[in-house]
């Protein structure tokens, strides 16, 4: 973790040096010049330090001298981070001087001069400590090279799956996978084939590959086979030599000179050796694509039906497999996990069944394993030697986190799972540890996670053409590809929408997080969160069991998940968060924001979702570093002029919902914003603002906008609005809501927006039929129309939009019939039809909506029978019916639907 700490500090130093301070202040406080010079010097030292530390892997750090030195490096990195953030805090105080008169400004400067000199002195001390660390490294001969070649421990770890799942009679699950692998290995395909088995650590990839490798049918099919463990520490030359020495005995022709050959020569020799063989090669535990180019050349394509199996935790490596030859393992279903657990935990009982008095605790333990075979087997094996008493099993469950990392019989499980974390590059380690701060089984929204990472300063700059959010999105993909995060739901673009971290991985991550003082979770009466030096706190339940003592200078994130925390606790705590960057108070019981929050000059992220906050004071302008202000589902209806002074603001969400089902026109309120908000060039998200003529004329200056939602739009504003939208090349989401249900939204001057993926229009359209302009939005995936007042069936106007995935029509059409023709909406997955009182017939032809998955019918009061064409929707899985006529509900009993269709009636 020393490397991650150094990397993070380097990012912060760069950001601080990029900031500007007035020349007047620099003249007044001479210490500022010394501060900047020291920061530049420390940045150089840390850059070299990082280069050295980045060579250290988890196994090198077992060297106690090196580990002690790395711990000192980390402490200095934390100290520098505190100094930099103190610097940023003071700069923030200076930046609000424009709100004060000259007398107050002079008084404040006299107070802060001592602080500036203090920072300069601290930085000088850090420079001295860094010099001593360098000398210490040389004095004690601390070197990565001395330990880097020692990969014995790694080789011992790489096959942990095998010994505990070696008895094939006890292997549970993977029947289909085994059958498929044997078929791929023994089919008649002559060309060499590459097969991959991928998934997170502990799923049994090695175990499955090993059982296939030893399978008699497979053994007979190949006349030469070899198992090569690659692991994280490898040399391609060594891998090739292992192949040449396998089953060759003392063949001098093969072995002659291989110790001195380079990679190319060895690859050519392997190629010659394999040329006449039908071979099977298993490359186990491959972490990188790097060795493949040489190995691919060596593994000759001899058209003898040879096969290569790769096991890996990363999707990048898995993609080396041939098309349709990728096998991704998943966790065991609950029944199979229970079966496996019982076979291990109750192996001494005749029937291998769980006694009734232990069943509750046994089920909780199995649930905690979340279908991970490695954990199920390891914990089951350990419990098989414990007394079968309820109290003992309860005690084990309560201490499971401790057991995983401290019990010698189980900590190897943590070691196997930690391999993936150890292999992460430095820029991902902090990001992953942050994921552990979310509650158990929590569905983490990708966009929320990205904003939190960005606010914390975890995201590195990668050029002016790439936003921090885009870089962070790449981080998410990388963690998913490395099997560290699991995708629960994807959006219409195939991106992760919600993510989850496996429970046991999370438990182990929290142990690392606490040990490294990265962060800690407050999750019960025994917590002493605010007495520890954790840099991040996540409050899950039972409130804060201890009040802060003094200034919590080290704290950077405070994230609240406890909905019952009293406002007084929040106010007391926030007064101690001097250098905080992330403050998330979702669902907090509060009607006003504590004054102390507006003194947090380093704050980058302020989240007040689902609170009762009604107003935002002018002191919001103090938060000059704020990047995200989330006021969704609050009672705020107006923002002060000072919001326009937040020049670093990137995301602004404000909404007050009255109807979450959106069945009334004014289902959520518009928020008044100052005209000067058009000066915030960095804004990417601006949601639910109240329109006026000036804003619609000038909002085009926000050229970075990607998400925009404007409300209370009058027909007279439309020309200016559409003209402004043309100046936003990156606009992805657009919502436009008319001032009332009778106001016309004029679309005659609309031009296609090339990047638009989501469009929401609520208001009357100035035609009897849906305008044909919709068909020109070629990349549109989501289309929602409401209160359009159309007299003719609108479907044909956008029926051939090839990218459309979601279609929502609320009170759009006043006619009797909606027709879905063959070939229409080829990619549509979700269809919502709501509150169209005159619709009495819905026609669905064979070949329409071939990809439809979900159909929602809401308040169609004249529709008395289910559409007969539903039987043509072969992909339809779910039908939701809300407030539908009783005749319609009754008709379902006589209608014929596929067995796989689930119908929900509300």
From TrEMBL:
Lineage top rank: taxon: Eukaryota
Keywords: Leucine-rich repeat, Nucleotide-binding, Plant defense, Repeat
GO biological process, one term: plant-type hypersensitive response
Pfam name, any one: LRR_14
Coiled-coil ranges (or none): none
Domain NB-ARC: start-end pairs: 176-348
Disease resistance protein winged helix domain location: 437-508
GO molecular function annotations of the record: ADP binding
Domain Disease resistance N-terminal residues, every copy: 16-100
Residue ranges constituting the Disease resistance R13L4/SHOC-2-like LRR domain according to the UniProt record: 554-879
Family as reported in the entry's similarity comment: Belongs to the disease resistance NB-LRR family.
Name used for this protein in its record: Disease resistance protein RPM1
Chain's gene name: LOC109720662
């Amino acid at each position: 973790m020393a490397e991650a700490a150094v990397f993070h500090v380097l990012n912060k130093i760069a950001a601080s040096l990029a900031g500007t301070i007035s020349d007047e202040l620099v003249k007044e406080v001479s210490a500022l010049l010394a501060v900047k010079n020291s920061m530049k010097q420390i940045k150089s030292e840390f850059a070299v330090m990082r280069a050295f530390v980045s060579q250290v892997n988890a196994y090198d750090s077992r060297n106690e001298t090196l580990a002690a030195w790395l711990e000192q490096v980390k402490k200095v990195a934390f100290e520098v981070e505190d100094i930099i953030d103190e610097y940023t805090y003071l700069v923030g105080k200076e930046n609000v001087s424009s709100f004060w008169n000259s007398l107050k400004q002079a008084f404040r400067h006299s107070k802060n001069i001592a602080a500036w000199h203090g920072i300069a002195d601290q930085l000088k001390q850090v420079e001295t400590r860094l010099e001593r660390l360098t000398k210490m490294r040389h004095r004690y001969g601390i070197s990565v090279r001395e330990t880097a070649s020692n990969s014995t421990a790694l080789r011992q770890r790489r096959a942990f799956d095998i010994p505990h799942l070696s008895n094939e009679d006890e292997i549970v699950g993977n029947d289909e996978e085994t059958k498929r692998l044997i078929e791929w290995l023994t089919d008649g395909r002559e060309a060499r084939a590459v097969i991959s088995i991928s998934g997170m650590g502990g799923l049994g990839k090695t175990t499955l590959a090993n059982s296939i490798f030893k399978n008699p049918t497979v053994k007979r099919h190949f006349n030469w086979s070899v198992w090569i463990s690659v692991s994280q520490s490898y040399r391609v030359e060594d891998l090739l030599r292992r192949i040449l020495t396998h089953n060759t005995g003392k063949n001098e022709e093969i072995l002659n000179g291989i110790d001195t050959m380079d990679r190319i020569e060895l690859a050519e020799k392997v190629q010659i050796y394999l040329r006449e063989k039908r071979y099977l090669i298993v490359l186990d535990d491959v972490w990188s694509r790097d060795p493949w180019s040489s190995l691919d050349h060596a593994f000759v394509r001899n058209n003898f039906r040879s096969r290569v199996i790769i096991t890996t935790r990363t999707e990048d490596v898995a993609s080396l497999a041939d098309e349709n030859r990728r096998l991704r393992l998943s966790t065991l279903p609950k029944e199979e996990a229970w079966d496996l657990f019982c076979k291990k935990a109750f192996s001494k009982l005749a029937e291998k069944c769980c006694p009734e008095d232990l069943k509750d605790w046994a089920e909780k333990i199995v649930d905690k394993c979340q279908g991970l075979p490695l954990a199920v087997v390891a914990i089951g094996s350990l419990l098989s030697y414990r007394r079968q008493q309820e109290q003992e099993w309860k005690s084990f469950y309560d201490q499971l986190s401790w057991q995983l990392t401290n019990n010698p019989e189980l900590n190897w499980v943590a070691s196997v799972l930690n391999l993936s974390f150890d292999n992460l590059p430095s820029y991902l380690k902090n990001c992953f540890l942050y994921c552990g701060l979310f509650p158990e089984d929590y569905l983490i929204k990708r966009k929320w996670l990205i904003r939190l990472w960005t606010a914390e300063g975890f995201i590195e700059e990668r050029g002016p053409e790439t936003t921090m959010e885009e870089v962070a999105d790449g981080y998410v993909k990388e963690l998913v590809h490395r099997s560290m995060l699991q995708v629960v739901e994807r959006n219409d673009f195939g991106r992760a929408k919600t993510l989850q971290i496996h429970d046991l991985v999370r438990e182990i991550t929290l142990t690392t997080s606490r040990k490294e003082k990265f962060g800690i979770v407050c999750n019960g009466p025994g917590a002493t969160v605010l007495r520890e030096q954790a840099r991040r706190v996540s409050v899950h339940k039972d409130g804060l069991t201890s009040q802060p003592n003094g200034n919590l200078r080290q704290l950077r994130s405070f994230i609240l998940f406890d909905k019952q925390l009293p406002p007084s606790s929040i106010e007391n705590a926030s007064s101690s968060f001097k250098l905080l960057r992330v403050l998330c108070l979702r669902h907090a019981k509060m009607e006003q924001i504590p004054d102390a929050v507006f003194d947090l000059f380093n704050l980058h992220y302020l989240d007040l979702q689902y609170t009762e906050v009604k107003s935002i004071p002018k002191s919001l302008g103090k938060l000059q570093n704020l990047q995200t202000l989330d006021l969704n589902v609050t009672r705020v209806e107006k923002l002060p002029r000072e919001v326009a002074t937040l020049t670093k603001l990137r995301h602004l969400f404000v909404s007050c919902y009255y109807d979450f089902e959106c069945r009334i026109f004014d289902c959520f309120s518009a928020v008044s914003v100052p005209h000067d908000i058009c000066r915030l060039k960095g804004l990417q998200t601006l949601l639910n603002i109240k329109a006026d003529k000036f804003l619609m004329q000038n909002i085009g200056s926000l050229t970075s906008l990607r998400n925009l939602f404007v409300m209370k739009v009058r027909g007279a504003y439309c020309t200016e609005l559409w003209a402004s939208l043309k100046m936003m090349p990156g606009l992805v989401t657009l919502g436009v809501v008319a001032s009332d249900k009778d106001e016309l939204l004029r679309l005659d001057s609309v031009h296609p927006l090339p990047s638009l993926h989501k469009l929401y229009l609520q208001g009357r359209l100035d035609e009897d039929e849906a305008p044909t302009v919709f068909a020109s939005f070629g990349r549109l995936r989501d289309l929602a129309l409401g209160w359009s007042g159309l007299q003719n069936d609108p479907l044909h106007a956008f029926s051939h939009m090839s990218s459309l995935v979601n279609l929502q029509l609320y009170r759009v059409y006043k006619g009797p019939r909606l027709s879905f023709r063959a070939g229409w909406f080829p990619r549509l997955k979700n269809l919502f039809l709501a509150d169209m009182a005159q619709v009495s017939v819905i026609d669905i032809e064979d070949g329409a909506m071939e990809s439809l998955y979900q159909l929602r019918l809401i308040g169609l009061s004249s529709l008395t029978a289910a559409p007969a064409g539903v039987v043509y929707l072969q992909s339809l899985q779910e039908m939701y019916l809300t407030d539908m006529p009783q005749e319609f509900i009754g008709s379902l009993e006589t209608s014929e639907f596929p067995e796989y269709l689930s119908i929900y009636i509300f």
